[in-house]
Each structure stands twice: as C-alpha cells, then as structure tokens.
Amino acid sequence: MPTLQELASSLNAEVRGNSECFIQDAQAIEKAGEGDITFVGDEIKMRNLSGCRAGAVIVGRDHVESLPELPPAMSVMVVEDAAAAFIEALTILRPQRARPTIGISAQAFVSPSAQVGEQTNVHAGATIGDDVIIGERCDIFPGVCIGPGCRIGNDVTLYSNVVLYDDVVVGSHVQIHACSVIGADGFGYKLIDGRHVKVPHFGSVQIDDHVEIGASTSIDRGMIGQTIIGEGTKIDDQVMIAHNCELGRHNLIVSQVGFAGSATSEDYVICAGQSGVADHVHVGKGAILASRAAANKDVPAG
Length: 302
Fold this sequence. Notes:
35 strands, nine-stranded parallel sheet
C-alpha cells in the first residue's frame, strides 16, 4: 500500500496536504472512502467534492484554483491531466494478473497441420482446426473454436467460447471477447416455389490490426468477398455486423448496433447504442449516429 507521496512520485505529481497518508484503492467520487484516491476532471464533478470522504483527490492544474472547500483530511494531488493520472493510479493500485505461460494444453485439440507461434497459450478445451496459422504471444482461452484455414496474427486474445468459422483472417493486437461468433453465414435467402432457399456464402471475414470486439457480437462472412473490420475499430458487446459490410478505421460501434448487409463506413464513424444502418447504406468519415438513429440512406462525412 503506497503513501500518497510514493504514488505522486510515480505520476510525476505535486502533493498538497498530507503526503504520508496511505492509499489503498482508487474510486469514483461517490464511492470513495478513507484510504481511497479519486479525481475530478470538470467543474460538475468538482461540486461533489465537498461531500466526498476520499483521502486524496487528483486534480488537473487548470482546475486546482477552482476547488471548493475540502474536508480537512483530504489531500490534493495536482497533475496535468486528471483522468489520465487516475487511470495510471489504477494500474498501480490494482495490478493486473500476470499472463500465464502454459504453452499448448494437453487438454486442447490442435490439428497436426496447424501452426502455433512461440509464447502462445492454448488453454484446455480449445479446438484448433486444420491448416490454421496462429502467431506469437497469443492467448486462446478455454472453449475457443478456430475453424480450418484461419489466419491469426501476433498478440491476439480470443476469450472463452469465441468461435471463428473457416478461413477467418485476424490481424495482430486484436481482442475478441467471450462468446463472439466471427464468420457465420450471412442471412440470405431466395423465395423459390414458396420456400426460403438459402443463398450460400463463399466469402470470409477480415479483422485488421488493433481491433477490439466485445462479448456476444456476431460478424457474418461475405457472400462472395470479405466482411472487413478496419484497423483500430472498437466494437462493443451484442453488435451485429452482416455479410459484406466494410467498416473503416477507428470506428466506435456501441452495444446493440446493427449493420445490415453490404453497409459501409469510412474512418472515425461513431454509432451510438441501438442505432442501425440499412443494407447498402454508406456512412461518411467522422459521421455520428445518435442512440437509436436509423440510417436508411447515405450519411455524408462529418
């Protein structure tokens, strides 16, 4: 348990008050108690400080002169960016569990024709199909199923029960959270003689570098070409991306968003919760769809 001064030294911060008090955890203003450190990043949060019981508060240099009268026991840590310093404090006070080194578990099934890179962990209960190539330093958690022909880059994490259908391509530094399904067939049928007849999907899915995909999200394979998720795009839980969609770089796709077949987006698009994009609609660079918005025609850039 560090003292406030020890924590401040790690954050390159200035302490005003009792620098020798011990800090045991970091909490939001409303939940912080004695021994906790909190932060304020704006004037609205600052008004809540008078009733806060935290032992210390992180404040940006631009706001320090606007502080209200604080409880006598509360010390102040002054930094350039309060939110960034608070996150750094969390990494110190709540250190992450060390990454295990288990190699390939004897309880995993790995096809003899698959290639697994150095320092990659394959946990018990994972299944890796024929001709799969997995890069270095990956983590394949229990219950993951990787279909034949998949290609996975370096530093990829597939959490429990992720399913990659055949021939999915995943770049490097990608995280796919539990129970997501990548590469299932698109929802395509023709009405023939009064019956819905399935349209076969011969394409695949390409996920570029630095993408994160939340839990229970579905990304369908293309009918002919690829469904593409651009570099740096972040997708929340319970999102549906249909066949042949192409998302640009650094999109933010929030929970329960749906992209219908062949919809496309350029870079830095934001889709808020439960918004939807109709089939073949294009969303321009930097456009924002607010919560529950429905884009049934092209959305211009900006």
